[in-house]
Design a protein that fits this description.
seven-stranded mixed beta sheet; single chain; Rossmann fold; Pyruvate-ferredoxin Oxidoreductase, domain 3; alpha/beta; 21 helices
Length: 636
């Protein structure tokens, strides 16, 4: 990959241009920011893809408004994409940007508080008109009033330079302006020696039906590279070496959480030798799973975009009854609507994956921002005693494994399973090693094939609720199989026969049996990271808090502190050794992006003084923030 960078630079360097200084860095955090129509997500995604192909470790944080087209030039309309990449293994998108690319005054003002002193700011001076500045409350031009003296500011007329580069393209001025994000991408690609061939190929493919637009974007991209190479304002470029030591051998790709989850569902269906059926209704931030799975009919995937949330899960549950690996995807508001059908799935004891990509609430809340506030809804958000297993991935790449794990539980124990991801994982990305087929679990199931019970008079019959003694799962009988006709429905069933039953004793038995089935699900023990073995503080998390917690723990250990860490994928049931783990430590701190829901569960079940540290800002924790809190807990 290094040779690709060198060749691209040699091809685009002006003859006779002076050689510029190249500095070696271990890590960089870059944030692209502009209007939601400025293409910041595309720009960040392309820079990320090239960074992944170069071999750096990376972590990303897209952040964008909920509105499809937020008011231009306003603070609520700012869209940003943050990328942290390094020559070693990293865990978070970074606490603060080293470089901010600000496409307008709103982007500068919205993101400036996050920048440390000395950070670089590349700013599009063409957008700093009096009207644009007044719209966000700038009484004077911040590029001229001295307020940015603590930063290394690079004023660049991005719009003007883009239009000049495209003057021969034949595009109208407004269309040419839209390529300014590609000019900025070219400039940053030069600054950090990113490969260029992939982006040029991507642009030609993306705009294949409009070749003039494709070539205009490629031209703007190259012009940005050449501008960095020739302008005196950028005297230094930077190299961040591949993180070869951070990755075990294998084939890697950059992957987002939603894409990894989609691939995990497909892999689960192939390993189970079952068709995959998705019944879903579009909702942010889960819609990408529906979009992705709809592309894979060649793998036996069938997707149904329903008219509403209730129809989506109803169709999925019907597919489960028919013998498919059934999935429904949603976010918190959709879970509320699906709750009655989830209860029906508990009663019918059919495998069903309920994928909840959590977002800020309540109600519509913050549709494009992250949160972990659906945990108690997943645990208890149904009428009656309706236990459901809960699985939560820790990183974008881990969404693949979590999907396989959730499918294993659903198919083995005949139960609906909650898979709790969130917006941070769904939209964020990281390098992911593509697994070999023989590394994937065998998820094949046996359907009921005939009678499974002999009555007192010797007649062989099929009992739909006769259970496996090890898993307590009932048989899965595909409709239409001769001799396996049986009732389904939401009214309580008689143990064994499945007939409608109002018996108090039978109801008590069935409720306790369904709970025992979930309690008995086999999950791995909690793994504790405690290098010295004598830490007094345990920090325990779940889901997407893994990266910030692990980064904070790494900082504390580097400073000589002793702290233990464990992270939960399985929240219902908890790992069998969790009580013993909690009992080893004097203090337990539980960081969550809610108001303390896991901590509440731990206190209730294990009677431990689990201390909550919470935030519900629509953003993930910062590593330094958690490190400070944990240090105070150690010293307190």
């Amino acid at each position: 990959m290094t040779s690709q960078v060198s060749n691209a630079a040699d091809q685009q360097r002006s003859p006779g241009s002076p050689t510029k200084e190249v500095r070696r860095l271990e890590r960089v955090v870059i944030r692209f920011a502009g209007d939601s129509g400025d293409g910041m997500q595309l720009t960040g995604d392309r820079f990320t893809s090239e960074t992944a192909s170069f071999g750096n470790d990376l972590s990303t944080l897209p952040n964008f408004p909920a509105e499809i087209r937020a008011p231009a030039g306003t603070l609520p309309g700012v869209s940003s994409f943050q990328l942290h990449f390094a020559d070693h293994d990293i865990l978070t998108p970074g606490d603060a940007p080293d470089v901010l690319v600000a496409m307008n005054p709103a982007a500068l003002k919205a993101n400036l508080p996050d920048l440390p002193r000395g950070a670089e700011i590349i700013v599009n001076t063409d957008e700093f008109s009096k009207r644009a500045m007044a719209k966000v409350g700038y009484a004077a031009n911040p590029l001229e009033d001295g307020s940015l003296e603590g930063y290394r500011v690079h004023p660049v007329p991005l719009t003007t330079l883009t239009i000049e580069a495209l003057k021969e393209s034949g595009l109208a001025r407004r269309d040419a302006e839209r390529a300014k994000n590609m000019f900025a991408l070219g400039l940053l690609s030069w600054m950090y020696h990113r490969p260029t061939e992939g982006t040029e190929s991507f642009l030609r493919k993306k705009f294949a039906r409009k070749p003039e637009v494709a070539e205009a974007n490629v031209t703007a991209f190259r012009a940005g590279w050449n501008f960095g190479e020739t302008t005196e304002d950028f005297a230094v470029s930077y190299e961040v070496a591949p993180a070869s030591a951070a990755f075990p051998p294998g084939t890697y790709r950059n992957i987002s959480g939603n894409l990894a989850l989609s691939y995990g569902l497909i892999a689960a269906s192939r390993q189970a030798d079952l068709p995959l059926y998705l019944g879903s209704y579009p909702i942010t931030p889960a819609s990408d799973i529906l979009h992705e799975l709809s592309r894979h009919k060649n793998f036996g995937v069938r997707t149904f975009q329903a008219e509403d949330e209730i129809a989506g899960i109803g169709a999925a549950l019907g597919a489960a009854f028919g013998g498919a690996l059934a999935v429904t995807t949603t976010s918190g508001p959709g879970v509320a609507l699906k709750s009655e059908t989830i209860g029906l799935a508990v009663s019918l004891e059919l495998p069903l994956l309920v994928v909840d990509i959590q977002r800020g609430g309540p109600s519509t809340g913050l549709p494009t921002k992250t949160e972990q506030a659906d945990l108690l809804q997943a645990m208890y958000g149904r009428n009656g005693e309706a236990p459901v297993p809960v699985v939560a991935p820790a990183t974008p790449g881990d969404c693949f494994d979590a999907a396989l794990d959730a499918a294993r539980i659903a198919l083995t124990y005949r139960t609906p399973v909650f898979l709790l991801s969130d917006g941070y994982l769904a939209n964020g990305s990281e390098p992911w090693r593509i697994p070999e087929i023989d590394e994937l679990p065998d998820l094949r199931v046996r359907f009921a094939g005939g009678p499974n019970h002999t009555t007192e008079d010797g007649t062989e019959v099929f009992w739909p609720y006769k259970r496996d003694p090890e898993t307590l799962a009932r048989p899965w009988a595909v409709p239409g199989t001769p001799g396996l006709e049986h009732r389904i429905g939401g009214i309580e069933k008689q143990d064994g026969t499945g007939n409608i039953s109002y018996s108090p004793d039978n109801h008590d038995f069935m409720v306790r049996t369904r709970q025992a089935k979930v309690d008995g699900i086999e999950v791995p023990d909690a793994v504790v990271d405690d290098p010295t073995g004598d830490a007094r503080l345990l920090v325990l998390g779940w889901g997407s808090t893994y990266g910030p917690i692990a980064a904070a723990v790494r900082r504390l250990r580097a400073a000589g502190e002793k702290v233990a860490q464990t992270h939960l994928r399985h929240i219902n049931p908890f790992p069998a050794n969790l009580g013993e783990v909690l009992g080893r430590y004097d203090k337990v701190v539980v960081p969550e992006m809610n108001l303390g829901q896991l901590a509440t569960l731990l206190r209730a079940k294990y009677l431990v003084d689990a201390r909550s540290y919470t935030q519900v800002r629509g953003l993930p924790f910062k590593a330094e923030q958690l490190a400070t809190v944990l240090k105070e807990a150690i010293d307190g």
